[in-house]
Amino acid sequence: MESEMKDVSSKDQFLEPIEGSVKDDWPLLKSESNSDQSSSTTTESILELEKKYAAYVRNDVYGTMGRGELPLTEKLLLGFALVSIVPIRIVIGMNLLFFYYFICRFCTLFSIPNRDEGDDEEEEQEDYAHMVGWRRSIIVNSGRFLARVMLFNMGVYWISESYKELLAVDGPETESEELERPGAIISNHVSYLDILYHTYSFFPSFVAKRSVAELPLVGLISKCLGCVYVQRELKSSEQKGVSGVLTKRVLEAQKNRTAPMMMLFPEGTTSNGDYLLPFKSGAFLSKAPVLPVILRYPYQRFSPAWDSISGLRHVILLLCQFVNYIEVIRLPIYYPSDQEKDDPKLYAHNIRKLMACEGNLILSDIGLAEKRVYHSALNDFLQS
């Protein structure tokens, strides 16, 4: 196992698949110019982009940005779905959202939210995840049930879950630690469906944009989940405050079984599902054990991965797909060694290697900054 992970983590090893992962038959954006030379230049440019940013490339029938040229059979299937199942799914989905919102509103009436204060007044975190008793029980159980119903409504009729037992797990293995509760769930990030699955399975707290707390309906639901709010545009003090809140919440979940675990996506953004991006070490500052979970989305026509495509287009095309699949690999609780506790970067590095090996994922060294460059280039091609 150890030698396999070393092979996977080698930079030379994972750079090679990136260079060789581009296929000539991928649907590409076409230049609007009638010039063959211009069209050829655009195609070559996009091929170069896809080689460089392979972790964000869509390989499904719909192609780059979901705007590839579709075969006739796909167009017919798409048209039929748009007038049949899509309206039904939208109505059911909205009703489920409203229904859960009213459950959360009822259970939080006359309740004072928990507040975690950061280094600044603007960093204050507000949530209802620390309630106890029948109110919390209703919020959790109904939330898990409705999250599964929402997945069913989106075509996820079956979820394939497997539990892997490792031959050797890094870190100490004492009876007391085997019973120790993980403070956080660590998962790769592919789609917004990830959130629905984890809500159904664990009902954890997530990290969300600060603006989510102010959204109608979703804002209150996020507070009931106990979301930790961040603002990517701000740096330094804001980030330090959020890291402190995250660490506090992870340690609290580890020691208190009534507290929700933190759901962390250490990549910081989504990939196309075949790659694993670099992990941010902030998720491992608590030194607490974690539960690694790997998500895969097998597909034939449209990929549920949310990359290189607008949100509205992705939702519509996903709802047009009659069946969607989720495969889940749950690894054993990972107990960090003393060396990993002293070095969060090492802890993050080793968890990432393990997940890549067990999930058959390719390690990539690009992150959010490169993703923005890639998306910007694609938009420039679209507008040219």
- Any idea what the shape is? globular
Cα Rg: 22 Å
Strand residues, percent: 5-15%
Figure out the total of helices: 14
**Strands in their spatial order, largest beta sheet:** 3-10-9-4-7-5-6
Cα-to-Cα separation, first versus last residue: 49 Å
Could you explain how this protein is built, in words?
With 384 residues, the chain is an alpha/beta fold. It has one domain. It is built from 14 helices and 11 strands. The strands form 3 sheets. The chain has a 7-stranded mixed beta sheet with strand order 3-10-9-4-7-5-6, sandwiched between helices. A hairpin with an 8-residue loop joins strand 1 (114-116) and strand 2 (125-127). Helix 1 packs across helix 13, helix 5 packs antiparallel against helix 6 and helix 5 packs across helix 9 (218-225). The longest helix is centred in the N-terminal third of the chain and has 23 residues, at 85-107. The protein is globular, with a radius of gyration of 22 Å. The protein starts with a helix and ends with a helix. Residues 1-41 and 168-178 have low confidence and may be disordered. GO terms for molecular function: lysophosphatidylethanolamine acyltransferase activity; O-acyltransferase activity. Keywords: Acyltransferase, Lipid biosynthesis, Lipid metabolism, Membrane, Phospholipid biosynthesis, Phospholipid metabolism, Transferase, Transmembrane, Transmembrane helix. Pathway: Lipid metabolism.
